[in-house]
Amino acid sequence: MAPPKKYPDELRERATRMAVEARLDPVSATGAIKRIAEQLGIHPEALRTWVKRAEIDAGDRPGTTSSDAERLAQLERENRELRRAN
User: 20 to 30 A Cα–Cα from 71, which one of 28, 35, 38, 45?
Assistant: First the structure.
């Protein structure tokens, strides 16, 4: 079982939105993640991970989307259950 989330979903969404918007502006792009993380009281690496995930989900960055990863995990669980049943 996964550990409980340290930050609420609303904070994650707000911080991610702020960071993505700040990175689009060349003036505020440098150090945007660190600055926003400090303003909101979150760890910069957590915010960096959320931004990366948002970019992958939006198709702006290569990688496995959240929905694909969730579906893959579900199929792997089903596969394990079927192997145990046989």
Answer: 45
